[in-house]
Specification:
Helix content: over 70%
Distance between the termini: 22 Å
Number of helices: 2
Strand content: under 5%
Shape: elongated
Length: 64
């Protein structure tokens, strides 16, 4: 596992948290929720790709 992955996920989390707070303070709760969901989807897509790479590595190691 690469440390860059952790930093990437943390940066997305910080960015989403700041945008969420800005949108809530301006009275746009719906957009804040959509921003949070979009950030969650982006992080989940990154994690799914990493898990897929892990399974491919295991597959090549055991010659399946």
């Amino acid at each position: 596992m690469d440390v860059d992955l952790i930093f990437k996920i943390a940066a997305i989390g910080i960015l989403v948290a700041v945008l969420n707070q800005l949108l809530i303070r301006s009275g746009r709760e719906e957009q804040a929720m959509m921003t949070t969901l979009a950030g969650l989807v982006v992080v989940l897509m990154i994690l799914v790709q990493e898990i897929s790479d892990l399974f491919e590595l295991i597959k090549t190691l055991f010659h399946f």
